[in-house]
């Protein structure tokens, strides 16, 4: 549970640390290639690219080695450090211990029980077995072991690290108490078990698509209509994103992802697909707003390295910052995508969780039905956030590209939504009076919590970026970390968890390039919790100041 | 930029290739059914669906239980108090009660000879998702799995499409009753090795889909011995375990390895409630691995196909109701046995035999005598006649990669008794008409020459020659134009 289990993936002094690692580790082919290249990249490309290039090289090297494994004349194999887990150099450790789920193709010794040599498993497993756990998972486990409860466990850990909205659950509950009996059990007399138990279309019941399309329009609060036949439903936004990744890119292709970003992208976009992520750093000086210039630079650098960029993935409102992309930005994004001939995946799962006065513009509003570019735009949506129902597993792919829809429909058989749950949601979302009340109340409550939380932080001198949507407060604690590095950030995170007993998400999990930023999920709290959280944070900060 | 023209180039290989294997007759059969589905009153000449392995025989029991336990579906006044916990539950470990219920159920289905550990239960989106998850965990793109043929048509998609794996079929022969022999396994393995294919394991379905047979103890022990010697994995797809309706009993791989000296890290079970409980709509698949690393990895992957918490909750209550489960399993196998008997004896009466089986929601029909010649083309020709003229959607053996032409999979549990009679009647007419035409052959050469040819070889057995006259017009339905569901139904 200490920070030693988590090796930083990003360092403020990367050159020093990494060169040292390469020298001390005794090299091997992989390291000798990686280290100098890293230096080269450092000059132009910045920290993020500095770690991506060696990762990619490392991956390709292993791939190459694997291909040639059966060749007896191959000298590389025996001398290759990645294949030899017993003597890792510091920098190879860094590469393999990316907290993300790497798709490394190396095959380490896995089981002590095995009598006859290593059991070959897939590279996807080895990534997990070898990789250190990220703070995200460590935090989750602590919550499970010792959850805060005002009465039963007042000294337990308070959860601020999940994307969960508990503010308006009571509204959903009331609706269920009144209507659900009918929704799922028919009218109480005749239960239509055939409509529930038998095979249903894997991409979702048409009735639910119609209901979801209506809900999406209501959430956006504009005259944007969604065509139900352009919708594919999946068991949550996670498979929706993965399915799009599978459809739009081949192994080794890349997506541009502006950072700080949703921590789950490493898993959703690249783990099983083998697709690469190229982070496009956004900076606090710009309030972490996306700039086309940064996109362009990242795109060109990827191209120079021979990486084929297949698309750009944005979250709007953004996670973790809560920025809402302006109409102009969306238009320039579309121009950019057209110019480079790539896709745009717009993750809009927080569209109904906007609060404050900023206007939210969906990508669906930007693309015209006759627009030739409509085929390159794909929207991801879900009911987990906006309807407080993460347990029900409903994700949405909205695309005007028939080929993508056709492939996605076939792929949904790996992640379809349970039919009884669909029936229930059809009734719920078709009740437009309920939906209207719910969306309004939920926004008000989110706004209230957010304002209170931000005020609480400000009292302690902690500033945050003004959020327009989502469940989070993205706070700047860089003045409070012991060293201006990821190590310092993780140290503070560790203290927040173990001394303050609050589980938050450190910026490094969101691939933020500036250390010291933290993500607080405010929607998971009640108003009573806020003073408790503030006291605990205060307690942690005291000795550091 | 001319996006539309280049559009497909901008998509991935997965989106544009056809490794999903859905361009086979197996899936064409669905389309024939979809465009003209049988209905006793609205469309009595439509195609009867006999390609869908769905278990609808015990829906009344399930429906009754749900109505009697309204609080289990959390969506009633009685159950809504639990709602707050359930609605936001997204832990990929799945609800504890649900895991316990599934583990207990699996144990019970296996005759209570093995205790399954609830903490090893990993959920997935149906058996489809479970199979894919296991493949993702065990092998890298380019690796291969040995699969005894005939095997489930969907394996081509589930095991290969997104994972990039390959399937190496292990041919099983009718002369052996399609048993999986060590010799055949060795041969396939060595052949793969010679072609430089890295074999990562063997996957078997027990009870077998499409055969409807269960593996005996010796076969399983020899299988385990084989994979243990080669140090490769064994994945057992046991989704039809509880559909075993007569002896010999179903034996889970978990029971076999209990008293065998083998490396348990190589053993993985795939399970599901879609067939045994008849719940494909609930999308519950299970990965049960004896290998800790695979278990952890599969659990992380379950994020891509989590079972709705509402459904988990409902099933937890149902599976933990032991009296209900016991009653359900007894009644289900009784009804399956009866339906199987009605079908197979009905076919025997017109001289069509099938592989002796005692499990599954289907049987393996032997139409070899009706083939013009022993080729896949002849099989598909016969199949087209059955689909288009006899109007039954059965699945040809070639779509299960059967090495011998002339076998067909017939599903029997997705229809009511009435439909069974109609289906049997259609087959009888077809067979008898064939004989009639053969008799006419010497008198005149008609436009039905092909059919004569087709059936000339068919009825050497003398008891088939007691025929009655049937009107062929009766079988050829006018093109039906009844409205059908706008949805293309998804299926297995």
From TrEMBL, chain A:
Q: Which GO terms describe its biological process?
A: amino acid metabolic process
Query: Which key words are in the record?
Result: Membrane, Pyridoxal phosphate, Transmembrane, Transmembrane helix
InterPro entries annotated for this entry? Aminotransferase_I/II_large (IPR004839), Ethylene_sulfur-biosynth (IPR050478), PyrdxlP-dep_Trfase (IPR015424), PyrdxlP-dep_Trfase_major (IPR015421), PyrdxlP-dep_Trfase_small (IPR015422)
Location of the region described as Disordered in the Swiss-Prot/TrEMBL record: 1-27, 70-97, 105-124
Q: Which residues form the Aminotransferase class I/classII large domain?
A: 158-537
**Domain of life according to the entry:** Eukaryota
Q: Where is the composition biased (Low complexity)?
A: 105-116
Q: Which residues cross the membrane?
A: 46-65
Single Gene Ontology MF annotation: L-aspartate:2-oxoglutarate aminotransferase activity
Q: What is this protein called?
A: ACC synthase 10
UniProtKB/TrEMBL annotation, chain B:
Q: Which PROSITE patterns match?
A: AA_TRANSFER_CLASS_1
Keywords assigned = Pyridoxal phosphate
Give the source's domain of life in one word: Eukaryota
Output the PANTHER family linked to this UniProt entry: 1-AMINOCYCLOPROPANE-1-CARBOXYLATE SYNTHASE-LIKE PROTEIN 1, BIFUNCTIONAL ASPARTATE AMINOTRANSFERASE AND GLUTAMATE/ASPARTATE-PREPHENATE AMINOTRANSFERASE-RELATED
Protein family membership: Belongs to the class-I pyridoxal-phosphate-dependent aminotransferase family.
Q: Name one Pfam family in it.
A: Aminotran_1_2
State the species of origin. Hibiscus trionum (Flower of an hour)
Query: Which molecular function term from Gene Ontology is one that the record holds?
Result: 1-aminocyclopropane-1-carboxylate synthase activity
Q: Does the keyword Nuclease apply?
A: no
Q: Which InterPro entries match?
A: Aminotransferase_I/II_large, Ethylene_sulfur-biosynth, NHTrfase_class1_PyrdxlP-BS, PyrdxlP-dep_Trfase, PyrdxlP-dep_Trfase_major, PyrdxlP-dep_Trfase_small
Keyword Ribosomal protein annotated: no
List the protein's name: ARABIDOPSIS THALIANA 1-AMINOCYCLOPROPANE-1-CARBOXYLATE SYNTHASE 1, ACC synthase 1
Gene3D superfamilies noted in UniProt: Aspartate Aminotransferase, domain 1 (3.90.1150.10), Type I PLP-dependent aspartate aminotransferase-like (Major domain) (3.40.640.10)
């Amino acid at each position: 549970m200490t920070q030693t289990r988590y090796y930083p993936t990003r360092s403020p002094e990367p050159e020093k640390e990494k060169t040292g690692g390469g020298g001390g580790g005794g090299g091997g082919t992989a390291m000798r290639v990686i280290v100098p290249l890293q230096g080269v990249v450092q000059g132009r490309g910045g920290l993020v690219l500095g770690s991506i290039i060696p990762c990619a090289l490392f991956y390709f090297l292993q791939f190459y080695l694997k291909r040639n494994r059966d060749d007896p004349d191959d000298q590389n194999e025996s001398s290759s450090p990645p294949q030899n887990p017993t003597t890792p150099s510091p920098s190879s450790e860094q590469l393999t211990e990316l907290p993300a789920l790497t798709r490394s193709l190396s095959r380490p010794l896995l089981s002590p029980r095995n009598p006859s040599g290593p059991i070959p498993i897939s590279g996807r497993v080895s990534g997990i077995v070898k990789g250190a756990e990220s703070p995200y998972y460590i935090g989750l486990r602590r919550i499970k072991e010792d959850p805060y409860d005002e009465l039963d466990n007042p000294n337990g850990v308070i959860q601020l690290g999940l994307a969960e909205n508990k503010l308006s659950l009571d509204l959903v509950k009331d609706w269920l108490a009144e209507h659900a009996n009918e929704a799922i059990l028919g009218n109480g007399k005749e239960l239509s078990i055939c409509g529930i138990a038998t095979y249903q279309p894997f991409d979702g019941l048409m009735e639910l698509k119609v209901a979801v399309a209506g809900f999406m329009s209501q959430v956006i609060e504009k005259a944007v209509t969604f065509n139900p036949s352009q919708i594919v439903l999946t068991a949550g936004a996670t498979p929706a994103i993965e399915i799009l990744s599978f459809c739009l890119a081949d192994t080794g292709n890349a997506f541009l992802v502006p950072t700080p970003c949703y921590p789950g992208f490493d898993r959703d976009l690249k783990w099983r697909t083998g697709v690469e992520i190229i982070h496009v750093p956004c900076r606090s000086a710009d309030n972490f707003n996306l700039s086309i210039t940064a996109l362009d630079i990242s795109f060109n650098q990827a191209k120079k390295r021979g990486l084929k960029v297949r698309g750009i993935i944005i979250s709007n409102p953004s996670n973790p910052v809560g920025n809402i992309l302006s109409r102009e930005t969306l238009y320039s994004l579309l121009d950019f995508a057209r110019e480079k001939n790539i896709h745009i995946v717009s993750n809009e799962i927080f569209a109904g969780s906007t609060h404050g006065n900023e206007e939210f513009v969906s990508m669906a509003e930007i693309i015209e039905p006759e627009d030739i570019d409509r085929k390159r735009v794909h929207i991801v949506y879900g009911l987990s956030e906006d309807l407080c129902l993460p347990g029900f597993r409903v994700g949405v792919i909205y695309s005007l590209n028939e080929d993508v829809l056709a492939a996605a429909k076939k792929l949904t058989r790996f992640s379809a939504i349970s039919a009884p749950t669909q029936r229930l949601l059809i009734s719920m979302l078709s009740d437009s009076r309920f939906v209207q009340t719910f969306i309004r109340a939920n926004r008000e409550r989110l706004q209230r919590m957010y304002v209170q939380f931000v005020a609480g932080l400000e009292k302690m001198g902690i500033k945050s970026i003004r959020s327009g949507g989502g469940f989070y407060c993205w706070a700047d604690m860089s003045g409070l970390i012991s060293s201006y590095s990821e190590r310092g950030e993780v140290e503070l995170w560790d203290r927040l968890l173990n001394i303050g007993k609050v589980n938050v998400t450190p910026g490094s999990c969101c691939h933020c390039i500036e250390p010291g930023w933290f993500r607080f999920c405010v929607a998971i709290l009640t108003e009573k919790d806020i003073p408790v959280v503030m006291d605990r944070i205060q307690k942690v900060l005291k000795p550091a100041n | 930029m001319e996006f539309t023209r280049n559009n497909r180039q901008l998509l991935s290989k997965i989106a544009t290739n056809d490794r999903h294997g859905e361009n086979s007759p197996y899936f064409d059969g669905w389309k024939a059914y979809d465009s003209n589905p049988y209905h006793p009153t609205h469309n009595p000449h439509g195609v009867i669906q006999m390609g869908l392995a769905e278990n609808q025989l015990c829906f009344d029991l399930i429906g009754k239980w749900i109505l009697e336990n309204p609080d289990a579906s959390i969506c009633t006044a009685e159950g809504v108090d639990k709602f707050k916990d359930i609605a936001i539950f997204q832990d990929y470990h799945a609800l504890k009660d649900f895991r316990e219920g599934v583990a207990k159920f699996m144990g019970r289905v296996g005759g209570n000879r093995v205790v399954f550990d609830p903490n090893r239960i990993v959920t997935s989106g149906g058996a489809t998702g479970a199979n894919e998850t296991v493949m993702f965990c065990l092998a890298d793109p380019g690796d291969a799995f040995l699969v005894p043929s005939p095997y489930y048509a969907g394996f081509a998609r589930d095991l290969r499409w997104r994972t990039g794996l390959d399937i190496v079929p292990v041919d099983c022969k009718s002369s052996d009753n399609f048993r999986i022999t060590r010799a055949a396994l060795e041969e396939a393995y060595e052949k793969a090795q010679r072609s430089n294919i890295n074999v990562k394991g063997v996957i078997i379905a027990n009870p077998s889909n499409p055969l409807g047979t269960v593996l005996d103890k010796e076969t399983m022990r020899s299988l385990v011995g084989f994979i243990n010697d080669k140090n490769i994995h064994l994945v057992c797809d046991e989704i039809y375990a509880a559909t075993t309706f007569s002896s010999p009993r179903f034996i889970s791989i978990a029971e076999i390895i209990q008293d065998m000296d083998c490396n348990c890290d190589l053993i993985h079970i795939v399970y599901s409630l879609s067939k045994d409980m008849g719940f494909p709509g609930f999308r519950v698949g299970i990965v049960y691995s004896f290998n800790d690393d695979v278990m952890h990895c599969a659990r992380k992957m379950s994020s891509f196909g989590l079972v709705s918490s509402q459904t988990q909750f409902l099933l937890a209550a149902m599976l933990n109701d032991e009296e209900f489960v016991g009653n359900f399993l007894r009644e289900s196998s009784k009804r399956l046995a009866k339906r199987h008997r009605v079908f197979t004896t009905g076919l025997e009466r017109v001289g069509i035999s099938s592989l002796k089986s005692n499990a599954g929601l289907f049987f393996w029909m032997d139409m070899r005598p009706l083939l013009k010649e022993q080729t896949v083309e002849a099989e598909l020709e016969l199949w087209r006649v059955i689909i288009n003229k006899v109007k039954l959607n059965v699945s040809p053996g070639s779509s299960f990669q059967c090495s011998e032409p002339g076998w067909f999979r017939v599903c029997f549990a997705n229809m009511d008794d009435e439909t069974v009679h109609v289906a049997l009647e259609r087959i009888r007419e077809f067979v008898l008409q064939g004989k009639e035409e053969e008799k006419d052959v010497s008198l005149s050469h008609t436009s039905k020459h092909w059919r004569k040819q087709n059936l000339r070889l068919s009825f050497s057995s003398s008891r088939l020659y007691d025929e009655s006259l049937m009107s062929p017009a009766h079988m050829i339905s006018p093109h039906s134009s009844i409205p059908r569901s706008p949805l293309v139904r998804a299926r297995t």
